[in-house]
Design a protein that fits this description.
two-stranded antiparallel ribbon, about 300 residues, mainly alpha, ABC transporter involved in vitamin B12 uptake, BtuC, 11 helices
């Protein structure tokens, strides 16, 4: 009974983290970059949204501002990687460290900003999970449609080719460096959008909100794609699967909490889930398929390596 009562909240949170996972999907699966900026950019989105809402700015404008702020963090990481030659993983770590200070500055040196109890016109709130779910589903549908349309434009197709084969793309005259910057901007803009929705849902923004976000995003991706690729392996179905992966992750997350697992171990649980889904293809090929082991994937590595 307690689990059923908590289910709408778990679904709402899963949808929010599903939006974040879509952003991670763009960098990890399309660009082939493991971008650790997301731990900072999701917090940036939440901080920008919370500060603007408490200043009286309408919620929808605050969300747009959060998206733009997130896109700027992605541009920063992209320039570290492309203009300065810093490996993508290190570029993300550097951006993440910079964003901790930036997020503190956005919050005026505070670690926590709350707008609970104020007379604010929010798009969603944890006090009404059903309305929050409907709002989030609508936002996700619009986001998926926009991404679907974008990635079948000329620019979107060159972004895909940059992730698939950067050397061939470069030989065809594609500006690979610019595409990486654009892709990381889109990715982190979506992640920051999720941060803005999370801040509204909780009614607050915390400087530590983004800690471990990349692990949750990867868990949602691997859970979702393990099913969606068997249904129909195309772009839209993959994005829907990623969102559903976020919901499944948070349902499991809440179920484990109800079983009495200490919250100190929840990050470890997230890491174990990701490790399992990463290991399954290798273990299946090694011990069950009676063929040569599947090589460890280089997804997330530097394309120029």
């Amino acid at each position: 009974m307690f689990f059923l009562n908590a289910l709408p909240g778990a679904v709402a949170q899963g949808l929010i983290w599903g939006i974040m996972a879509i952003g991670v999907y763009v960098s990890y699966k399309i660009l082939d970059i493991a971008d650790l900026t997301v731990d900072g950019s999701i917090c940036t989105g939440g901080c920008v949204c919370a500060v603007l809402i408490t200043a009286g700015v309408p919620a929808w404008i605050s969300i747009i501002a959060a998206f733009i702020a997130g896109a700027l963090t992605g541009i920063m990481t992209g320039l570290f990687h492309t203009a300065l030659g810093i490996p993508s993983i290190l570029a993300g770590i550097l951006s993440q460290l910079i964003l901790y200070s930036v997020n503190l500055a956005i919050l005026s040196g505070r670690s926590f900003v709350s707008f609970v109890g104020g007379n604010y016109n929010l798009l969603l709130s944890m006090s009404d999970n059903i309305a929050a779910i409907i709002t989030l589903v609508a936002i996700i549908v619009v986001a998926i449609v926009i991404l679907w349309l974008f990635f079948y434009t000329e620019v979107g197709l060159t972004l895909k080719s940059t992730g698939d084969n950067p050397d061939m793309s470069r030989a065809q005259g594609v500006n690979v460096s610019l595409n990486k910057v654009i892709g990381l901007a889109i990715s982190n803009g979506i992640v920051a959008l999720a941060g803005a929705m999370l801040a509204q849902y909780k009614g607050s923004a915390n400087i530590n909100d983004g800690r471990g976000a990349i692990v949750i995003g990867l868990a949602a991706i691997f859970i979702g794609l393990s099913v969606s690729t068997k249904i129909k392996p195309n772009f839209v179905v993959s994005l829907i699967g990623v969102v559903c992966g976020g919901i499944v992750y948070y349902i499991i997350y809440n179920f484990v909490i109800l079983l009495g697992l200490k919250t100190d171990y929840l990050k470890m649980l997230s890491a174990i889930i990701v490790a399992i889904f990463l290991a399954v293809p290798y273990l299946k090929a090694t011990y069950f398929d009676k063929r040569k082991p599947v090589p460890v994937s280089n997804a997330g590595g530097d394309n120029n390596a």
